[in-house]
Amino acid sequence: MSIIVDYLIILWGFLLIGLMGIGGFFMFRKFLKQMPKEDGKSDMDWENYYMEKTIHMWDEDEKHLLEELVSPVPELFRDVARHKIASKIGEVALKKDQKTITQDVLIQGYIIATPKRDHKFLRKKLKQKNIDAAPYEKFFNEAKDDYSVNWQERYEKTK
């Protein structure tokens, strides 16, 4: 009986260490997003800036489409994903001097904000909504595993 209790205590210890490690990993990632870059603002500062600048530009149809696109993200992470993607869409809209968030800008921003593995779902959703994906092929083709690195340079080349 004593040996079983010993094993349970050891197993419990490994479980706690594992869970604390996972939590620490996510906390560290959040910490890195808060670190200022060369321009003095962090990634989170820029995300909040673009959200505040473009919050009035969203129509109900685009909000609904964004909700559909982030629906496969687990609910625990959905708010974070929605915020990141919406801020990138807002950034694209501001760079294009748009007055509203259009479907075109939304799709471009979604492609830029998400890794390549998520694009299969986007293509499927575009097909369901009878939206031609051909105008966005240049964005799909330029996508890397992590599109966020140097996305602005690649975006400028497509103009």
From TrEMBL:
Keyword Transmembrane: yes
Keywords: Membrane, Transmembrane, Transmembrane helix
InterPro entries, per database record: YneK
Domain of life: Bacteria
Annotated transmembrane regions: 6-28
Identification of the protein by name: DUF2621 domain-containing protein
Organism: Virgibacillus indicus
Lineage: Bacteria, Bacillati, Bacillota, Bacilli, Bacillales
